[in-house]
């Protein structure tokens, strides 16, 4: 009887596991909203577009910190950067809040297979490609780290604004090598191999995370992806010198000296290579979606596609990341699969990457930590017109002694940004109904005093919610810890 009871219990567990959705969690690196499904007039992204046609596209989704390490730690813990204590790259949340369960760890502990292919936590790109990077061992049962020609063979050919500097410097290459030789294509190959294994084990659901490296610098993609983007048609931002006049100094603090080397010709080359990298990455997303279809996994798999933060391509005279403007803070976010009531719909209420943890765990009936700080997006998946929280907040830290934090709150109509305590180092206000490019700072316009007063109150309340219960940002500990899955 005891054995029979155990077998029956295992069978019940298998049935329950089979009924729960799988998760395919796709993260692109340094991708802004330059996608066809987001209305971009030039970029070709047919595969991400077809995912949007199957799911809900979140039109106003934002990262919580426009830098890789802090953003990814926040997204994968469901906590704001002030609660993870991670405000810089090359750190992992185990150095600040070691007992917290990450998103994929929560799935592991509840019976899911959890695997990672490529970049999920921070990596020094491109030098750490092919390694675990700054990863969390407790988060994954399987880790795969391929490295292609873009990492192992082609670096001497890459053009860079600073010679032999690629990861943080504008750099690019139209590669003569075919798709299959590149790292992101190898990631898609590995994902198909893993999904084949998962398709044979219908008694155990999976959480598979695939982290593509493109379009992060260096912008390397096969030449054929450059061809749809003629150089003379690349959109170089004009008038940015005038635009900068009403922006506080800290609002422009992400500017790099390297960017002063750009000419209009180099700007066009950089934009072309960035767009080509997006299209190459999009092709690999298509291969993932094809794998789900071929293996009969699509109907019971929640697919998430997003990026760790946005990216400037010359707006406001800025390039790359680390600003609090729309281009740097906004990310693409698409969720498809079980729970989506209106495929092809658009949710317009502001949301954050911090919302993915509670959304996925609740959708899959996975227990989650009680201190998660995001909202559950399932009501928006059921009804894209649902309002949810109605705002989202992002932050960044500027150097100095002491350093200064900037916070920005995004509502459906407005972006309000404070630099320093209560805006002591500058304020910005942009009306997205009439100024979606954030060209006119209204913070000092008396006619908007009531709006500013309302948003000041909202942002102060929001900032308070970014901290842990103690009210103190956790300190970073450099001690080495022994990974422990159940008791970190």
E-strand count: 18
Coarse structural class: alpha/beta
Largest sheet features: 9 strands, mixed
Rounded mean pLDDT is: 95
Summed up, the helix count is 13
> What distance separates the N and C termini?
37 Å
Strand content: 15-25%
Percent helix: 25-40%
Written account of the structure:
It is built from 13 helices and 18 strands. The protein has helices at 2-19, 46-54, 68-77, 81-84, 103-109, 149-152, 183-199, 240-243, 264-294, 326-329, 356-363, 378-382, 449-465; strands spanning 22-28, 55-62, 113-118, 142-144, 159-160, 171-175, 206-211, 219-222, 301-307, 312-313, 319-320, 330-336, 345-347, 351-352, 392-398, 404-410, 414-419, 427-431. Strands 1, 2, 3, 4, 7, 9, 12, 13 and 14 form a 9-stranded mixed β-sheet that branches. A 4-stranded antiparallel β-sheet has the order 15-16-17-18, covered by helices on one side. A hairpin with a 5-residue loop joins strand 15 and strand 16 (404-410). Helix 2 packs across helix 9 (264-294) and helix 7 packs parallel to helix 9.
